[in-house]
Amino acid sequence: MTGLIDVHAHFVTDSYLRQAVAAGHAHPDGMQRWPDWSAEAHLELMDRHGIDIALLSMSSPGVHFGDDAAARRLAREVNEDAARIAARHPGRFGFFASLPLPDVDGSLAEIAYAVDDLGADGVVLMTNTQGTYLGDARLEPVVAELGRRRTVVFLHPTSPVCGDRSALGRPRPMIEYLFDTTRTVVDLLLSGVLERHPDLEVIVPHCGGALPVVADRVDEFTRLFLDAQGKTGAIEQLRRLYYDIAGPAFPRQAAALLGLAGPDRLLFGSDYCWTPPAVAAAHLDAIDTAPAPAPAAATWRALTTVNARRLFPGLTERE
């Protein structure tokens, strides 16, 4: 069995949980409760299901709860916690560093510290922070620095500012996450970020959200109504991104994704610990029984692992 590399895996610390609840996130994104997490439980799940390495990240609501200084402190805290977890379990955990966006200066400082000093494998960016999406011109210094460094950017969905109303009282991860992922990727595209920074390596979660369905519509609007003549087409830019298959990807979502992204851009994600162990096991069973996504790949496991090792060459060196 091919040992998987999990690019969409989460951790929660007691300190982070206390601070998030104090900031008003007792029911994050409309969910009933926060999940429990420990390195030991996570490793047990990994060993049971053939996951060699998990790249840990903070999930929604991220680290910015409205105060820049507090967000800088919390980002530093969770990044140092993640680095300690990885150091205690060499070869099993890596991590994506959290940034205190939309605080640009704080984020630039944290990129340097997390990548250069802590050895982060990349950064995790929420799809929006208090309504600021990732194509916003004010964030250009941050995306430019990430592109210059070729630092992998893992996008993670969060609630839109209208989430309380648009979700109609239902948990926002169900569909709002997919739409907010789509919204921020389209913003990156239409704002020119992806074209200005072709070295920016981006992982889009959950089979691209709604992107496989709306990509042709976005491409048509860019050509007909948004003065995109002479620029790289939307479809071509979207094909350059990576996509994880976290969530119930089979039988429909992964098939739709393969109509947009080549097999060489697909990665595995468990979404543990926000996805309970039994549900994560069901998702893995679906992956293992799904037809191979490409003639050259015997299994989804083999394909996504080869892709992850190409995107993260440093993982092999640590094993």
From TrEMBL:
It comes from Amycolatopsis melonis. This is Amidohydrolase family protein. It holds the Pfam family Amidohydro_2. Keywords: Lyase. The lineage of its organism: Bacteria, Bacillati, Actinomycetota, Actinomycetes, Pseudonocardiales. Residues 5-313 form the Amidohydrolase-related domain. It comes from the Bacteria. Gene3D superfamilies: Metal-dependent hydrolases. The keyword rRNA-binding does not apply.
